[in-house]
Amino acid sequence: MNRQIIKLFGFIVVLFAILVAFTSWWSVFDAKALKEQNVNKRPLFEQQQIPRGRILAADGTVIAKSIPKGKGSGKRYVRKYPLGSLFGHPIGYSFMEQGQSEFEKEHSAELTGEESEFGTILDELSGSKQEGEQVVTSLDVHAQEVAEHALESAGYGAVVAIEPSTGAVKVLASNPSYNPNAIPDKLEKMLKEKVRAPLVNRATFARYPPGSTFKVVTAAAGLESGVITPESTINAPGSIEDEGHELANDYNQDWGSISLDTALTNSVNTWFAQLGQKVGQDQLFKMMEAFGFNATPPIDLPEEEVLQSGVYDYESGKMLTRKDPVDLGRLAIGQERLLVTPLQDAMVAAAVANGGKLMKPQIWKRVVNVDGSVTKTMNPSVYSEPMSGKTAGELTTAMEGVVDEGTGTNAAIPGVPVAGKTGTAETPGNEACGGGSEENQAWFMGFAPANNPKIAIAASVECTTAFGNDVAAPIFREVAEAILNGE
Questions:
Q1: Does one domain contain both 475 and 339?
Q2: Which of 17, 32, 308, 400 is the most buried (most CB within 10 A)?
Q3: Are residues 114 and 196 in the same domain?
Q4: For residue 375, what are the contacts with CB-CB under 8 A and spacing of at least 6?
């Protein structure tokens, strides 16, 4: 009898151990996976009971804060956004019923004080009250305002401004934006706005044909591979045959034998198409990938809210690689099926500006505990090195010519040397633009001061009949002046 009781007791102990192990795994070790399920509202409900940390701009301006509502066990904290729509993108929103997006989602662990699952458990066991930490960003309020106002005048589009030496994101503006305070009441309505699409962050989640801004990448591939030097010449007639079709310069102008500076200054299509063919697909794709193409940009936003840039095949829904057939001549001038986000274009400009080193773009700057102590600081890190300092310097000289006397004169800042490149991609029949025949995607990307870069910027405007120099270059100038004058 005693032996049977002992066996039964042992069996019960084993079952109990299995139950404890399973429960521990499900509730503790696998808690992160549970929280990531959209159907699981419990974490969001719990977060509403925690004073979520504030999000601040670089100058200390409050972008997001939590307001207490109710008393006792019914007390909860509701998110408020004092600046309204100014930072609808990239900050996003956080509400119990509607969930989270963008920066609020990516940095939720710091904002709720949940640095680890074990830390939260220890707080509960010790009776400590969990409080969120404050996250300070690098975002520049005045420059963001300038970018938003400029876009409102120009049309739908985006502006991204990055500090080349650190990767700190100063501006990330998307037009139209939205007021996150209105999310609880108007989310469903906003989701139905397919053309205006205010919830789409056009800076990171919209891809456009880049036009001639991509010639900077082609030039970098040519210089870095040794296929050309700044003094090398290529004969650039008014038109050439490419893949059985004509590829022409503006107004079919014959430029004769010219070097890089003249070709970039005047954005000569036939010159760059031939350069692309000389460089070859493997080398051009290698340079693209070094700049961040065909990969999710390393910015601190949720991966599902940031699109890759590259040659996009609509039929398969995939990005093409160096092994897939492409029209190399047209790719080299920013056509073919190439699609780029404004963030990616800004990353290209930032890499050239930083002597060939591309820093990891980051919005956050530091995390501050409830007692005022800094718990984490953003340490700048190199994402890739697409080119040598020598190549970056040669490109800078050529890009200065674009602004001084070429296609980008409207980006010029009095007394400040500017390097940049315009782009005007024709998008006839674009349904988002109404299906007309004269719509363009207008671009300007560059940096200033060219001799000591402080800021790299990409500006893009969709559905416009204007050219890059007419509508995007002035936006670059205004935002660059706002940042440089504020230092």
A1: yes
A2: 400
A3: no
A4: 133, 367, 368, 369
Between CA 252 and CA 267 the distance in angstroms is 13
Tokens representing 230?
């700044």
Least Cα distance to 155 among 487, 463, 429, 469 occurs for: 463
**Which range marks the domain in which residue 195 is found?**
141-178+189-486
- The dihedrals phi and psi of 215, each to the nearest 5 degrees, come to -60, -20
Q: Are strands 55-56 and 134-137 parallel, antiparallel or unpaired?
A: parallel
Residue type, 292: G
Assigned domain for 16 exists: no
Q: Is residue 257, in this structure, part of any structural domain at all?
A: yes
% the chain with pLDDT above 70: 85
In this predicted model, what pLDDT tens digit does every residue of 186-196 receive, in sequence order? 999 999 998 99
* 102 phi-psi bin (left φ>0, alpha ψ -120 to 50, beta other): left
The domain tally of the chain equals 2
CATH code where residue 378 lies: 3.40.710.10
The pLDDT confidence band at residue 71, using thresholds 50, 70 and 90, is confident
Do 131 and 161 fall within a single domain? Answer: no
| pLDDT number for residue 26 | 40
Query: What integer best gives the mean pLDDT of the chain?
Result: 90
Residue 396: pLDDT band (50, 70, 90) is: very high
Q: What digits encode the pLDDT tens for the residues 245-292? A: 999 999 999 999 999 999 999 999 999 999 999 999 999 999 999 999
User: Which three-class secondary structure string do you get for 336-356?
Assistant: CCEEECHHHHHHHHHHHHCCC
Token representation of residue 243: 């893949």
Residue 474 · residue 447 · CB < 8 Å: no
Q: Are residues 432 and 460 in the same domain?
A: yes
Report the alpha-carbon distance of residue 365 to residue 355 in Å, rounded: 23
